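Hi V.,

You were right to ask for the full record rather than a summary. Here it is.
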Amino acid sequence: MNMDFATEADLGYISERDKHLAKPLISTKIKAKEIYILRESNQEIGWMRFNYFWDNTPFMNLIWIDEPYRGQGFGKQVVLHWEEQMREMGFQVVMTSTQSNEEAQHFYRKLGYIDVGCLLQEKDPLEILLSKKV
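Predicted structure:
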């Protein structure tokens, strides 16, 4: 798997699939180098996007792997690569979150993330906040 920062050429692929991010913000995040595009044999297979919690802590917002490529370790590779990039930039802690009814919480914990809090919004499952020292 190859992982690079997304470019404007990746806009269509991401905007067709990312239902959690307003389309006008995708270009902004691409320009800010806050989206990685994942490729296998020159074919897009997913992406990961992040921002900064409290403007000072890298926060992984979403990892997406297309269905045929799931369960092959690509998600783990993405997270470890991102953590290394953040460490090289001088960050000591990274964060992410997942809803309590999603399996992702177990994935993150296996990678060393610990629960550090939660958020409860009306009509949504509990959002678990996780962090990891890098």
